[in-house]
Each structure stands twice: as structure tokens, then as C-alpha cells.
Specification:
Strand content: 5-15%
Oligomer: single chain
Shape: globular
Radius of gyration: 20 Å
Strand order of the largest sheet: 8-9-7-10-6-11
Largest sheet: 6 strands, mixed
CATH superfamily of one domain: Periplasmic binding protein-like II
Helix content: 25-40%
Number of helices: 16
Amino acid sequence: MSQENSSVSRRDFLKKSALGVGAVLGGSSLFMGCSKSADHGGSASINAGSRKVTSCYLPITDATPIILAHEMGFYKELGIESERPVLIRGWAPMAEAFMAGRFNLTHLLAPIPIYMRYSKGFPVKIVAWDHINGSAITVGKDSGIRSYADLGGKQIAIPYWYSMHNIILQMIAREHGIEPVIQSKTAPLSNKQVNLFVMAPPDMPTAIASNAIDGYVVAEPFNAAGEVLANGRIVRFTGDIWKNHPCCVAVMNEKDLADQAWSHKVIQALVKAELWALNNVEQAAHILSKDGAKYLPLPEKIVQRAMMKYDLETYGPSGTGAIKHPEWNTRRIAYEPYQFESATRKIVEMMKLTRMDGDTSFLNALDPGKVHSELMYTSGVEAAATALGGLAQFVGVDPKAPTVREEIISI
């Protein structure tokens, strides 16, 4: 896409970015000040006790099923009401709003519900995976990062401590003998250390364009935005490291699942939205973009790139090297709603090895199998998939064993 044809030019992007580089949140804590922090994007009647679906989302492609379930009328088809999903601009305020009962459905980074249930004692349930893959490591053109070994001595932003992004980046660092540290950007940093800090996703392209940071790992469409608007370079897709990994998940309060006549319809609408998005990628990108229903802050061409561009010419060995496993036949972002136990186990195991800001001592006592049985609500997805033709329609599902898989990781 040329600068002339883009509805957002690089100059406008750098000049008008309202979120700026100053939003680096070093040492940020979790779930504090919900009522003051949330950006509700307009007035909405919100009551988690009602039988109306009230949902919220971050402006990333991870939110696709929650957005489309409402926008495509899938809730209405099943005889339930829904309000337009409400935009919130941060993971902590969104989790807080959900915990406070202001919403009865949202999407969260997969590790956040583990924190919510086992550190905070909140009865959250993961009712479906929201999507698979959909994230990447993007670096600035002047960062000097060409391979993983180059992460040493660099400043890398992540969207949240409790994120697959943090887990996967630290898996890479350990594999290459690089120590992840959490410190001030001005503190001394050796070439065997990488400094990690939390930054709001919309700030990240601006930050690499101005050389305020060296790179970031985040969900789309901010990797595509980094490429197009900030001359950034994607050095690896996370789905090419951990095949078809979950990233965001759809969650509900356990008490709302008691009414299965209602809650299973909510889950069925989400599963139908995932299937529709899988088979109608261009239309989904249009709806999400600011040229469509204006859920995301970027134009359709960038959202389409974020959801569709995954070619070896650009990202293979002769390109940026972001795809090392074309034989996996993965997509840049795809959809698979079933919550595989193998993935839950691996996430819990990796969380125990991952450095995060704050008290993570609760992780020590977690049994991965128990976490899966207590946190995952799989019956809704199974019922929904059966009604829609089966789980085998989704990406990465073995038709002979649709609820079992092996986690494949290759750094």
C-alpha cells in the first residue's frame, strides 16, 4: 500500500497519534481503579444481571468474535438481546470492569483469567478461545535486530505481564541465553539482557518510528500498523513459534453460566462468529476497520493486512524471516474455539518460568490439570460446534479427535 493511497499516512500517524510514546507503564499493577480508568466509549446501559449481552473489547483483532457476534446479528438470531460492544483502552480496566459486573462477556489475554481466579479468587470461566495466533514481534528499522540473538541489550515492549506475548518472548530469550529484566529504560543493560516493559498497543508503532524503543510483541493490527506506518519489520509471527496458540479467550462469570438456556446461546453466537470470520476474512476486516463499523482505529487496508498477509515472499527466508515453518500451514490469525487441555497445561507451566511485575507466588501451587478442569467451561463450545456442523470446520482440529491436540513449539 503506497503512502499516497493510504487513508492514514506515516506523517499523519506520527503527528496525530493521540496515545504517544509517553504511555510506557513500567511496573504497572493489576486491576486497580476500575471506575476511574475505563474508557467506555460512550454511554451504555450495563447490567451483568440482565439477560442482555453486555460486552467490552480492546481495539485489536483478538476481539473479532465478540464484535461480530453482535454486529452480524448472531445473538439476535438465537433470540437474545445484545448491546454494541464497548471500547475499553487497557487490559487492567477491562478486567476490573468485568469483575465489577459492568459487563457479562469480554475477551482477555489467556493468562489473565488464571490470575483472576487463583490470585484474586474471582469465579471467572473461559467459555471459548477467542482466536489463535494473531500476534508478532515487530522491530524498528534502526533497531539493529535481525535475529533473536540481537534482542540482547534491547528495549522491548509487551502489552501486559499476564500475556502470551510475554510468555513467548521470554521462551525465546531463555533459548538464546538472554536474561529478561524489568527495570527503568535508563538503567544499565548488558548485551545478555533484554528489558521488558508494558506499553499500550496503539503506542507501539509510534514508539519504534521515533526510536523510543527497539521493538515490541503485540496483537494485530499493530504489527501491520508498524510495518505500514512506521517502517517496522516483523521478525517472527508468534504462531510460527507456538503452532496455533491461543492468545485471547472469551470469559464469563461462573454465576451467569448457571442459566444454560441463555449462556449456551451466547457461546453459540461466539462460535458462529469465529466460523464466519474464518470463512469471510475480507468482510470481517472491513467491519472491524474505521472504514466499516469503526471498532478498530485503523483503515481497512491495514486491518486486511493484519488478518490476511502471510506470504513467504514477504516473510519467508528471503524476506524478514518471520515464517520458519511454512509446513505448519498456519494463518496470521485464525479461529478455533475449543479450549484444549494440552494448551492450558503448557500455559501454566510456562507462566511459572516467566518473569512478571508484581507478586506471582500464587503460581507456585498451581496444578495445570486442576486449572484446566476448574477454569475451562468446554460444554458450551462442544454444544455450539455440534449445532454448527462440528469442530472439524476450524483450524488445527483433528477430525478423528477434535478435543485433543499436541502442543508444537519450535523457537
